[in-house]
Amino acid sequence: MLNNIIKKDFADCIGNTPLIKLKLASDISGCEIYGKCEFLNPGGSVKDRPALQIIKDAILEKKIAKGGTIVEGTAGNTGIGLSLVANSLGIKSVIVMPRTQSEEKKKMLKLCGANLILVDALPYKDPGNYIRYSESLAKEIKNSKGVFWANQFDNLSNKKSHYITTGPEIYKQLSGNIDGFICAIGTGGTISGISAFLKEKNRNIKIGLADPMGSAMYNFYKNNTLISKGSSISEGIGQGRITKNLENVVIDECFQISDSEALNIVFRMIQEEGLILGGSSGINIMGAIKMGKKIGPNKKIVTILCDYGTKYASKIFNKEFLREKNLPIPEWL
Predict the structure, then answer these.
(1) What pairing do the DSSP bridges indicate for beta strands 206-212 and 180-183?
(2) Phi, psi angles (nearest 5°) of residue 227
(3) Active site residues
């Protein structure tokens, strides 16, 4: 009995998050929209899952040991997850992040004790890009216990984490009665891992992509061209290349979501449902609504509630920032 109540360590608290029916999204779409509450992971985001799997696999493959160092380029959440899992296992963390990310995430990484290195936001082709820089940095650091570059974008432990945990959890929580799953693409691990599991269970389950403006994924899966238009304030999602985690993923439906659409739903979720979520969750929920309107009515669709909105207070809950970007400002702010 106690085994179900008491967790043995930090890692044991990751996963098994609840599924919640989103009343607002369900009413708007005419479907049953459910959110996987990934903000309830101990590191506060969906990225705790790949962080744990990446480190577990690296230890099993003897690429790193206690006292070693893990290095990663991240928009923030994976870095937080990696740092906390690493701390619990006696491993040091070096995190490279674009300086354009929210101040809250930077502060959180420092609180985790990570060695945080901020770099300019540069395209992937530039050697100074945060991912590329983290790779070169991992080669320079010396540690007899091992130095491991997590490489979440192309490390298939990322996809594996969602294939063996998130996908099965969703399927079990709805007793297999699911018609669609949708989320945005960052590294590609979440959508590829969950969709691979769900499609194995029932190939008729529709997989949808919710893509922010400025990302090339909508055009790639719609028109087979890696072209992006516009821009987005969302963090940790949007992609301009096909990562290893994205290889072989099957996308049935694609939707583009604007920042205004995402923020309006985020603001309404706070007031009407008591859920304070980040911008990427807003992209996901709007994607689920659009998918519901297309494949519905009365279909059961699941999406990911990635993290808390408190990590973006200086942006999406900042009147000056919103005004400067010509984005909606909630009356209560």
Answers:
(1) parallel
(2) -120, 135
(3) 47
